[in-house]
């Protein structure tokens, strides 16, 4: 891409133009992901609670997020009287910049990356973890004990969950032999059983541990102890309003997608569909193949983000002592075992056995997913409950209000 700008601009303006274009595309993608993510979360939560969600603003309520954004922009930007105004205003931007920088080394396809790095895995983990600085500053600068409690909780939670998350990341890195995300994604070209998640039982379990710890690092329920509305009013962002408040949620949704993208690249084949035995960008040409790669990568990330939303509206919030105990007592030793197991598997297990186990994990998982998908059509659902009867767990019990007199 810098070579393209070299035909129109001299050095170093060509690099500046390339950087501005890459940053603009990344910012636009984060904004669009947050725009659709907020709408999707409202729809998901409404479906799970037998409600409708946004319906009136735009088709299917799609413009509700835009309306809310306009509302937040025009709201008054206030700060508490005792707050450190400089840090109070700086904190939301620090949180968002951490989420933004994670996308710079995240490849969306073969060569579709803002900046290819040989240590991209380490870079993404480091910058995503730095979001905690903005949250701690927000809690400290707000001159509110509730905000301070939320910031301290987030610091303890993120620092603790970084350890098992990083160890689960090292498992596929040991399999790939590189920290370059572009190389890791390219190594998983082909059918879905070549994905790292099916390489061995240890990487299979490591994917789930990584996803749970990444969810905790993104402050998503049931690990959202930094906000904890039932205990801390709204946690670290209690004193924020208007556009600065929205930056925290823009950072949260951006981090959700970045963490999901890292999971897809390390474990789920990256930008490959798993249904083609070749690299689309090499077989179809760069641009047509890149469209296929981009669609597959965004689809996988969106599916993982939806799982995070599903978890939020399904599970109750944990206590802070339960969150810390889960990490230090369970996830940390499990991740250590997984890391040692991956190394021993590659050194000691014969290739024939490893291939057979890979096939068993891949086709077993695919069969389980098909069974779960088929079960969705097994029941007629609540709309077809007989008159005078209640559906679901109350099947067979009469509803007095529906019985005809």
UniProtKB/TrEMBL annotation:
Broad class of enzyme this protein falls into: translocase
Any one biological process term the GO annotation gives: aerobic respiration
Annotated keywords: Cell membrane, Membrane, NAD, Quinone, Translocase, Transmembrane, Transmembrane helix, Ubiquinone
What is one cellular component GO term in this UniProt entry?
A: plasma membrane
This protein's membrane topology, according to the annotation, is: Multi-pass membrane protein
TM regions (residue ranges): 15-39, 93-114, 120-142, 201-218, 247-271, 291-310, 330-353, 359-377
InterPro entries found in the cross-reference section: NADH_UbQ_OxRdtase_su1/FPO, NADH_UbQ_OxRdtase_su1_CS
User: Where is this chain's protein located in or outside the cell?
Assistant: Cell membrane; Membrane
PROSITE patterns (UniProt xref): COMPLEX1_ND1_1, COMPLEX1_ND1_2
Give the Gene Ontology MF terms in alphabetical order. Answer: NADH dehydrogenase activity; oxidoreductase activity, acting on NAD(P)H, quinone or similar compound as acceptor; quinone binding
Reaction equation(s) it catalyzes? a quinone + NADH + 5 H(+)(in) = a quinol + NAD(+) + 4 H(+)(out)
Please give the function described in this protein's UniProt entry: NDH-1 shuttles electrons from NADH, via FMN and iron-sulfur (Fe-S) centers, to quinones in the respiratory chain. The immediate electron acceptor for the enzyme in this species is believed to be ubiquinone. Couples the redox reaction to proton translocation (for every two electrons transferred, four hydrogen ions are translocated across the cytoplasmic membrane), and thus conserves the redox energy in a proton gradient. This subunit may bind ubiquinone.
Q: Which family does it belong to?
A: Belongs to the complex I subunit 1 family.
How does this protein assemble? Answer: NDH-1 is composed of 14 different subunits. Subunits NuoA, H, J, K, L, M, N constitute the membrane sector of the complex.
Protein name per the record: NADH-quinone oxidoreductase subunit H
Q: What organism does the record attribute this protein to?
A: Frigoriglobus tundricola
């Amino acid at each position: 891409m810098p070579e393209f700008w070299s035909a129109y601009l001299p050095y170093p303006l060509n690099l500046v133009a390339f950087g501005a274009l890459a940053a603009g595309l990344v910012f636009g993608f984060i904004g669009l992901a947050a725009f659709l993510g907020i709408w999707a979360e409202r729809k998901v939560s409404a479906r799970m609670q037998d409600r409708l969600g946004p319906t009136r603003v735009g088709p299917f309520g799609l413009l509700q997020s835009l309306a809310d954004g306009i509302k937040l922009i025009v709201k008054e930007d206030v700060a508490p009287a005792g707050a450190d105004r400089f840090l109070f205003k700086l904190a939301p931007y620090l949180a968002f910049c951490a989420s933004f920088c994670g996308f710079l080394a995240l490849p969306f396809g073969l060569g579709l990356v803002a900046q290819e790095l040989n240590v991209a895995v380490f870079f993404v983990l480091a910058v995503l973890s730095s979001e905690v600085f903005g949250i701690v500053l927000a809690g400290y600068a707000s001159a509110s004990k509730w905000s301070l409690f939320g910031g301290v909780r987030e610091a303890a939670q993120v620092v603790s969950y970084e350890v098992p998350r990083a160890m689960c990341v090292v498992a596929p890195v040991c399999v790939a032999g590189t920290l370059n995300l572009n190389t890791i994604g390219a190594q998983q070209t082909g059918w879905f059983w070549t994905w790292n998640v099916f390489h061995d039982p240890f990487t299979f379990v490591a994917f789930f541990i990584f996803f749970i710890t990444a969810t905790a690092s993104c402050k998503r329920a049931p690990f959202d102890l930094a906000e904890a509305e039932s205990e801390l009013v709204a946690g670290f962002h209690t004193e924020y309003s208007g556009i600065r408040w929205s930056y925290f949620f823009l950072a949260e949704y951006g981090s959700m997608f970045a963490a999901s993208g890292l999971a897809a690249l390390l474990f789920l084949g990256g930008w490959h569909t798993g249904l083609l035995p070749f690299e689309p960008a090499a077989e179809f040409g760069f641009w047509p193949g890149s469209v296929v790669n981009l669609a597959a990568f965004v689809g996988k990330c969106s599916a993982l983000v939806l799982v995070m939303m599903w978890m939020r509206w399904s599970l109750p919030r944990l206590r802070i002592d339960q969150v810390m105990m889960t990490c230090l007592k369970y996830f940390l030793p499990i991740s250590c075992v997984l890391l040692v197991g991956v190394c021993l598997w590659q050194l000691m297990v014969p290739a024939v056995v490893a291939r057979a186990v890979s096939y068993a994990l891949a086709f077993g998982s695919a069969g389980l997913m098909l069974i779960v998908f088929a079960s969705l059509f097994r029941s007629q659902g609540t709309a077809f409950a007989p008159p005078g009867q209640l559906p679901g767990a109350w099947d067979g019990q009469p509803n007095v209000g529906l019985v005809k007199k």
